[in-house]
């Protein structure tokens, strides 16, 4: 049940140092806001969801200003090289959370992202390759979009390139100059004056004095560039009203573009943990100063960094320890990578390794095998059993409640997967003849079994996993492009013939060993091509598990 907070109640909560917890009865209240300027609870609708807030080092209630329109901004890539799985893990995790809010909790998300196509790294790569900087950036941007499509990451509703929005950024800087929150240096660069903003450091909990000696042109060591004056003739640059020519600093582009989309308040702002400082800290400072408010973003979400197993540093192009998305998809599927992200709390670091990916593959296979077994049971390929109706009803209720509670507790997808696996294990024991007919409250319970199966299938779809009904809508494209082969019908026909052979092999007093061996060879042949066959008393079912290796292609 959603709770709409009255204005007077909201103001009382804002003035209070404590926020009540609802999910865990034994949990301690969140820490109070610190002297750096802590989080302020918004006025609006309490969703019953709790989200980790780094400023208070604890979970706080998700309160939406307008549940009919929830705004979400994600920091986009700097497009100067191939996308690696470190980037991918951030965007897949963000996609999972957005899907949860949109598809499970039914909120109307409006999402936006910037694309940094003007940057020192892009200029450097342009010089190294002799390629035009904008052409280079747009080529890598197109590759990034393609990679996200491969990984089933939904595109943002709004997307903006920095180079196409220079006037928007310049107007934002102009306002900061008018507000006396920024100043023009001797070379016509513009810096944000952190001494004029009292709450600087509230995300990272640092003081303004924690910086080194001020660089040339800066008044304070912590001041940061809003606009970089042109240094060399061939650098991309634009004339500025305060004099000279130059290009935007890194931090200002997100503030200006997000504000262009959403104005003076954003519900969610997401990015990798490494962006919390200085990037997000500086974004928050710029926007609070520009709009003269104490809080621009209500909820910052930071995803944990991805490391190669055995390395402490994050995966980074500059460190040369990257695995590109293309390389990932030569060995594993997009669903397997997404499952690896689901098995990790979005805030935690991920240790990327073959072991992690094989664990994800095995987990995903459990879901596919369960779906195949349940489908076979519903098609009467397995003998029906009498099950404990009351126990199944209780299990279904427990699964639904625990799944929802897990998502409300800071989007705990790892716990969600555990809840679903536990339910699948219980049902599998019932339908795979591992238990005798129930003596108490006996019934076939086909409706309850289907309800559980439907819930699990929908949950996986809502996480962005492909349909568990393997290949139901996929087809093989033969050499003759005018013809198409329905793979489902083909496998069904092969298995029907194999079933007839098996029946002949066991028909009579003596089993036909050679015929049974032929059936096994056919099953093994299908297995080598990724089709796992499961035999039942009255037929066979199958699931598709593509076996990828380091030498295989993405397709």
Automatic annotation (TrEMBL):
Gene name, Swiss-Prot/TrEMBL: Dvir\GJ21318
tRNA synthetases class I catalytic domain residues: 67-361
BP-aspect Gene Ontology terms: cysteinyl-tRNA aminoacylation
Entry GO MF terms: ATP binding; cysteine-tRNA ligase activity; metal ion binding
Catalysed reactions, semicolon-separated: S-sulfanyl-L-cysteine + L-cysteine = S-disulfanyl-L-cysteine + L-alanine; S-sulfanyl-L-cysteine + tRNA(Cys) + ATP = (S)-sulfanyl-L-cysteinyl-tRNA(Cys) + AMP + diphosphate; tRNA(Cys) + L-cysteine + ATP = L-cysteinyl-tRNA(Cys) + AMP + diphosphate; 2 L-cysteine = S-sulfanyl-L-cysteine + L-alanine
UniProt similarity note: Belongs to the class-I aminoacyl-tRNA synthetase family.
Keyword Nucleotidyltransferase: no
EC code(s) of this entry: 6.1.1.16
One Gene Ontology cellular component annotation held by this UniProt entry: cytoplasm
HAMAP family in UniProt: Cys_tRNA_synth
Entry-linked InterPro entries: Cys-tRNA-ligase, Cys-tRNA/MSH_ligase, Rossmann-like_a/b/a_fold, tRNA-synt_1_cat_dom, tRNAsynth_Ia_anticodon-bd
Pfam families to which the protein is assigned, alphabetical: tRNA-synt_1e (PF01406)
The entry's keywords: Aminoacyl-tRNA synthetase, ATP-binding, Ligase, Metal-binding, Nucleotide-binding, Protein biosynthesis, Zinc
Protein's UniProt keywords contain Lyase: no
CDD domains: CysRS_core
Name recorded for this polypeptide: cysteine--tRNA ligase
Cofactor: Zn(2+)
Protein purpose: Mitochondrial cysteine-specific aminoacyl-tRNA synthetase that catalyzes the ATP-dependent ligation of cysteine to tRNA(Cys).
């Amino acid at each position: 049940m959603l709770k709409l907070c009255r204005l007077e109640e909201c103001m009382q909560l804002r003035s209070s140092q404590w926020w009540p917890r609802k999910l865990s009865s034994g949990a301690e209240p969140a820490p109070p806001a610190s002297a750096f300027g802590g989080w302020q609870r918004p006025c609006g609708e309490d969703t019953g969801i709790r989200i980790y807030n780094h400023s208070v080092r604890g979970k706080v209630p998700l309160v939406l200003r307008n549940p009919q329109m929830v705004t979400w901004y994600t920091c986009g890539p700097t497009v100067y090289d191939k996308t690696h799985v470190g980037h991918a893990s951030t965007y897949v995790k963000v996609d999972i959370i957005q899907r949860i809010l949109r598809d499970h909790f039914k909120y109307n998300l409006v999402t936006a992202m910037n694309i940094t196509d003007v940057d020192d790294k892009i200029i450097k790569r342009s010089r190294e390759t002799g390629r035009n900087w904008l052409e280079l950036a747009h080529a890598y941007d197109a590759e990034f979009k393609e990679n996200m499509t491969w990984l089933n990451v939904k595109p943002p509703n709004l997307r903006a390139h920095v180079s196409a929005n220079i006037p928007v950024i310049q107007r934002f800087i102009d306002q900061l100059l008018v507000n006396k929150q920024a100043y023009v240096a001797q070379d016509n660069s513009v810096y944000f004056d952190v001494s004029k903003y009292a709450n600087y450091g509230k995300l990272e909990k640092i003081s303004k004095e924690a910086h080194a000696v001020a660089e040339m042109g800066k008044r304070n060591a912590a001041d940061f560039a809003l606009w970089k004056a042109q240094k060399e003739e061939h650098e991309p640059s634009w004339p500025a009203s305060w004099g000279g020519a130059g290009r935007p600093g890194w931090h200002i582009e997100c503030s200006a573009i997000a504000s262009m989309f959403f104005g003076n308040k954003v519900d969610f702002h997401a990015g990798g943990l490494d962006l919390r400082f200085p990037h997000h800290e500086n974004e928050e400072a710029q926007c609070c100063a520009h709009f003269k408010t104490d809080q621009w973003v209500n909820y910052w979400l930071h995803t944990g960094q991805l490391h190669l197993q055995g390395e402490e540093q994050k995966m980074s192009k500059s460190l040369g320890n990257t695995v590109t998305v293309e390389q990932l998809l030569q060995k594993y599927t997009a669903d397997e990578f997404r499952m690896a992200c689901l098995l990790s709390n979005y805030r935690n670091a991920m240790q990327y390794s073959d072991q992690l990916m094989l664990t994800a593959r095995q987990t995903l296979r459990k879901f596919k095998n369960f779906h195949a077994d349940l489908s076979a049971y519903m098609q009467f390929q397995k003998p029906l059993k009498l099950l404990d109706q009351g126990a199944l009803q209780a299990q279904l209720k427990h699964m639904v409640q625990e799944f929802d509670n897990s998502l409300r507790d800071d989007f705990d997808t790892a716990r969600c997967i555990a809840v679903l696996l536990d339910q699948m294990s219980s049902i599998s024991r019932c339908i795979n003849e591992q238990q005798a007919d129930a003596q108490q409250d006996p019934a076939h319970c086909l409706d309850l079994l289907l309800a559980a199966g439907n819930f699990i299938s929908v949950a996986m779809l809502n996480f962005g996993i492909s349909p568990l009904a393997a290949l139901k809508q996929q087809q093989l494209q033969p050499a003759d492009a005018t013809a198409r082969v329905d793979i489902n019908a083909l496998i069904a026909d092969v298995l029907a013939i194999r079933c007839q052979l098996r029946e002949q092999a066991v028909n009579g007093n003596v089993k036909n060993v050679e015929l049974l061996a032929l059936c096994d060879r056919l099953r093994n042949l299908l297995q080598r091509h990724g089709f796992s066959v499961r035999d039942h008393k009255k037929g066979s079912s199958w699931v598709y598990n593509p076996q990828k290796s380091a030498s295989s292609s993405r397709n």
